[in-house]
């Protein structure tokens, strides 16, 4: 995706340029096999080839601007910083070029670099076939830290304010401290994965060479949910609010399809004791919200005559009731965050205690 155009290449090494309405603007046969992602930056299009060329292309003129020769095939998509262009190579080197294609520097690893690096402010993150994940000082082009993993790394990392996340070929999803590389948590995916991760509202979603999409809490690594697509997922998950998109592939029918998933926004309310109950009993109503980022709760109590807010909006997801009068009530909760809201109610009856007298004995019947 460029600023105004869409670029696509096929297995016959034909490059296509489309406008945003899908109209073909031009197509061009490339001399070498395209082996990396296509990336546009400052009105130039870049890609890597199997012969080790990084090509800079002028989309308006329809011609090559310059070509840089690296020491191996380039499968890592180029990324961009203020100082220039960065990409990995099969020769195990990370290359730093000026925007005119001049070599500025190199960083050596012990294996191929297939995954695109990630520029994050003054830092650079990437993984290699040598089973290490690296954090570099971008200005000095020097290693700050590296972390040993259980497999090669084939997908681009993602970050939030404090953490960097990536997948290794041993099916492990890692969360590291961005500053020092400390492993904060890791989880095993259903299968190996070369797909990119997606961060959505405090959660991280991963696809793999399986039918299952998995979601984890970004801070703790606890699993928040799964989705079984029934067929092998063949893409990274893509968040286009309000949808999460994945593509599937059916080997028997040789057909693919695009699936739109929509976030479930709901709340349930559960009492600690079943209705009916007696006056003075302690009853705790607990709310469980789904689809909220940072939910807040407001509890209310309704009778035929009025509605009363019994617990103001707060992060507390439960309310304790000591009923003082008999009758039929409705207990409800409103849940909201910056984007979503939901409400639910349940009916609850409070009954009078029955008192039975036998001679001088008085018994309270339940």
Tertiary shape: elongated
Q: Give the CATH class of the domain at 1-90.
A: Mainly Beta
Major sheet: arrangement of strands: 29-35-34-31-32
The proportion of residues in beta strands is over 45%
Number of helices: 0
Main β-sheet, in a few words?
5 strands, mixed
Q: How many strands appear in the DSSP assignment?
A: 37
Backbone CA Rg: 29 Å
| Spatial gap, N to C terminus | 70 Å
Percentage of helical residues?
A: under 10%
Low-confidence segments, ≥5 residues, pLDDT <50? none
Structural class: mainly beta
Looking at how many chains there are and whether they match, the oligomeric state comes to single chain
Query: Taking all residues together, what is the mean pLDDT?
Result: 93
The CATH topology of the domain at 1-90: Lipocalin
Architecture (CATH level 2) name of the domain at 1-90: Beta Barrel
